[in-house]
Amino acid sequence: MDFHDIATFGAASTTDEVLAGIDLKGKRVLVTGVSAGLGVETARALAAHGAHVIGAARDLRKAETAMAQAWSEAKNGGGVELMALDLAALASVRAGADKLVATGKPLDLIITNAGVMACPLSRTADGFEMQFGTNHLGHFVLVNRIAALLKPGSRVVALSSMGHRFANVDLDDPNFERTAYDPWLAYGRSKTANILFAVAFDRRHRARGVRATAVHPGGIATELGRHLGEGGLQARLDTLNAELAAKGKPPFHLKSIPQGAATSVWAGVVASADAVGGRYCEDCHVTTRVTDGDIDMVDGGVRPYALDPANAEALWTKSEELVGERFS
Hints:
Blueprint lengths: L14 H4 L9 E5 L4 H12 L3 E6 L2 H7 L1 H6 L5 E6 L5 H14 L3 E6 L17 H16 L4 E10 L23 H23 L5 E6 L15 H15 L10 H4 L1 H9 L2 H4 L3 E3 L2 E2 L17 H4 L1 H15 L5
Parallel strand pairs: 1-2, 1-4, 2-3, 4-5, 5-6, 6-7
Antiparallel strand pairs: 7-8
Helix pairs in contact: 5-6, 6-7, 7-13
């Protein structure tokens, strides 16, 4: 791959800017959540630069409509195929993973893009709290079951969020069976889990040349905010910007979808594997601010508990226990 000057990329960079001059012909990529938003743009951008993208979605009919532009822009031998995958049902995850393994075709990149945010208390088909079960456990099983397809030089990019700052994982009560449920607390736990998964997966696979990283895409108006209700997102932005103004800080601005997907493709195919492996990235760079202190939305940064190797191993063990599978 042509690693061009990455120092110029930042919060305003788009997928097309990040991938300018990059030829992905012959690369195979799996992207989850391609029925809307960031997943669609991620798949489109990669296919437009020659990659063969396998797009996973729960609603295939919706994904077919959403991916029409990606199909039309596929170039240099690139293409898009869709597969059914419901991350909230481990039977579906295992069936999808088994189909991929059965093809024997290697993968160069997995982007675990799909997710839910701040939903009311609900359970997956396997009884897990919906956000932890979908955002973390579904991807945990999927990626581990197809890990053998990742050849040396390949990567896993786990989509996390600045929302990880809301909470560390709770390994004693991951499904809110004793804790009072709060949708943002649950979201924070699941997004911390995404980072910790990348840390633990990277440790297990880097010796064979496979790296994993976690990214925060930024604040973007997508279907992810469906549970906020009409005007809910704007109300949160208004409150946030009032708080920032009181501190003398600039307002927080939402990114466009191409800007939001840029960090995923940057971490997946542009940045140095050694630079991003086991790390947390945002705004097309590796985050260097690791702090327990105050972090505003405009500051950037990651909590120490999200990068703690011991925490990552404890989550891995608990996740294996919950899903009933062990992964070396």
